[in-house]
Amino acid sequence: MKLYNFFRSGTSFRVRIALNLKGLPYVYQPVHLPKGEHRQDAYRAISPDSLVPTLDVQGDPDQALLSQSMAIIEYLDETHPTPPLLPADALGRAQVRALAQTVACEIHPINNLRILKYLVGTLKLSDEQRNDWYNHWTVEGLKSYERRLQDLARQRAAAGLPPSVYSYGDTPTLADCCLVPQVVNGTRFGLVYEDLPLTMAAFDACMKLPAFEQAHPRNCPDFEA
Amino acid sequence: MKLYNFFRSGTSFRVRIALNLKGLPYVYQPVHLPKGEHRQDAYRAISPDSLVPTLDVQGDPDQALLSQSMAIIEYLDETHPTPPLLPADALGRAQVRALAQTVACEIHPINNLRILKYLVGTLKLSDEQRNDWYNHWTVEGLKSYERRLQDLARQRAAAGLPPSVYSYGDTPTLADCCLVPQVVNGTRFGLVYEDLPLTMAAFDACMKLPAFEQAHPRNCPDFEA
Predict the structure, then answer these.
(1) In this structure, is residue B73 part of a structural domain?
(2) Is the pTM of this model over 0.90?
(3) Which of A29, A46, B143, B188 has the smallest count of CB within 10 Å of its CB?
(4) What is the rounded CA–CA span in Å between residue A91 and residue B167?
């Protein structure tokens, strides 16, 4: 498999984590977003929407170029089921997907590079307004994430289950693949995470695992300080 | 089942379509977003993040409050498999999910009510700037959607398959549940859809089905002109 991605891209980071958790080797193919490599013809032939990541599953039963990080991770989970990144029951899967989508639909899309560029480039907002924007939506979204974890913790306690180690249960899931890159990204903007005890406990537990640490931007071959 | 939702909410519309396609009866519980009902304590007890839709699957094997529209639709597809809203093969599922996420992660989050309010209320942008914003991201996203459909059409033709009737194949999928509300929403902002032949053909095919037409905002009990 070959992953077209960029070290700082949060959606790329999600897929790197999933590949590592599954123990799947892959070729790391950097696409330099600030230099605009994703908009050049060579990459447009790979990705019709000029977005990273793209996973080329050559060698897998399917020969295809896959895009959209959550769709890629679900594909990997279906074709390489061990270890699972979603619970075995439908309700658990719904809860993990809702956590993942809290990041992937409520935080990340509003705060990615092209949006921040539009705010400053087209709308002529100041860097301060841009950073306030980033922080506002990230904090709002992570508070939602925390409320979900608190709800799930109450449900587990009521059912006599021990507290979750990660976002959902005692193994990392699709939710953690989305959470960790968002938290890491926020630190670039100087965000200090307060009042997010369960969220940050899940983050800390993940970062102790090599699969997460090795996928971190600072450990990518195209990393720039 | 009871669906907490709002007639004009695109994510609510997605779930209404899926419930109709599955032939599942539900109680329609309106939550008036412009009046701020989603932020009141009564609804906060239902939805920790004050977002619609929430599906209360009382009566289903699980007694739970589900949120995030794509997670809800996948839950419905798993617990009520007929008719399926995702293809039977992993690659097909990845492609349908990627289409759905092109709407759900690349268009809708940037253009929903709270974002548009922030642009005008907090950033003091003009209505014209807000509408330009809306149109820019919707058009960009639907162009991506169209490029995906063109790619898939080429793949089908190469495999000797007939053209898709809907976004993917000859039955509606999760992708159509996301596409149709986005297209309908754009018309409120005066968007004219050009150069989207496959996308609009899929939209038109969907709107001929009662499941889509009955889920349309104009046919909701809380509809306001």
Answers:
(1) yes
(2) yes
(3) B188
(4) 27
Tokens in use for B38? Answer: 């989603």
In a domain, A98, yes or no: yes
Facing residue for B67 by CB, picked from A78, A98, A136: A98
Answer whether the bond into residue A61 is a cis peptide, omega within 30°. no
List the pLDDT tens digit at each of the 225 positions of chain A.
999 999 999 999 999 999 999 999 999 999 999 999 999 999 998 898 889 999 999 776 677 899 999 999 999 999 999 999 999 999 999 999 999 999 999 999 999 888 999 999 999 999 999 999 999 999 999 999 999 999 999 999 999 999 999 999 999 999 999 999 999 999 988 899 999 999 999 999 999 999 999 999 999 999 998
Total of domains in chain B = 2
Domain coverage including residue B39: 2-83
The complex scores an ipTM of 0.97
CB A51 within 8 A of CB A65: no
Order the strands of the A65-67 sheet from edge to edge: A27-30, A2-5, A54-56, A65-67
Q: Which of A59, A83, A107 is the last residue of a domain?
A: A83
**Which of A35, A55, A83 represents a domain boundary (last residue)?**
A83
Q: Which of A74, A101, A115 sits opposite B68 (nearest CB)?
A: A101
Q: Which residues of A touch B67 (CB under 8 A)?
A: 98
